[in-house]
Design brief:
212 residues, mainly alpha, Arc Repressor Mutant, subunit A, Rna Polymerase Sigma Factor, Chain: A
């Protein structure tokens, strides 16, 4: 490990700026109003605008592309079913994340064994790129080896830790928003994210033959 980067410090952030997220939120609010008024084309645009966000979030939580695709379909079915109950268009993005998390939880409960992240699928779809890029790993490791470490480390997280980490560090949502989505306090989210980061850091150190 080079220079002063002896410890692995996880500082994952979302790739979209606040301005971009704000613009998307305003557009979503307008589409949501039209969709609630019965405009089918507006609802189709909502799906187009948010399908990647939903799919990638589900993929990170479920670890299976097939399950993530099923989850994505279920998310938009629920969205259509309960659209009329959502009164505050300004809070649509957090609501969509909450629906996505709930669908993924339901799918995990239906699975016969504990959810385990699929390394091959996650690497193929690039969902570990943000983590590998921002995790201070050996410079001599290949990109594939870096993602291998992170993917295996993610398997050590509990469902709640993974949810908090995905929404806060990978999706880049504010702690307050994550807390609202997951129905937890901000202190709990900060604790879960901190614990998840430590677990990933320790796993990486162990993987590289270091003492934690």
């Amino acid at each position: 490990m080079a220079g002063g980067s002896e410890e692995l410090v996880l500082t994952m952030t979302g790739s979209r700026s606040e301005a971009e997220q704000g613009a998307d939120q305003r557009e979503s609010a307008q589409l949501l109003k039209k969709a609630k008024a019965g405009d089918a084309s507006a609802f189709k645009q909502i799906i187009i605008q948010h399908q990647r966000q939903v799919l990638m979030t589900a993929l990170r939580l479920l670890g299976s592309l097939e399950l993530a695709q099923d989850a994505s379909q279920e998310v938009f079915l629920r969205l259509y079913k309960y659209l009329h109950k959502h009164s505050d268009t300004r809070k649509f993005p957090p609501w969509l994340y909450r629906v996505t998390v709930n669908v993924c939880r339901d799918i995990n409960r239906r699975r016969q064994k504990n959810s385990m992240l699929s390394l091959d699928e996650l690497q193929h779809n690039g969902s570990l790129a943000e983590v590998a890029d921002s995790t201070d790993l050996e410079l001599t490791l290949t990109r594939s080896e870096q993602r291998d470490i992170v993917a295996k480390a993610l398997k050590t997280l509990s469902e709640k830790e993974r949810e908090a980490l995905v929404l806060r560090d990978i999706q880049g949502l504010p702690t307050k928003t994550v807390a609202r989505i997951l129905g937890s306090s901000e202190a709990t989210i900060r604790s879960q994210v901190s614990t998840a980061r430590v677990k990933i850091k320790r796993f990486a150190e162990h993987f590289l033959g270091r003492k934690s």
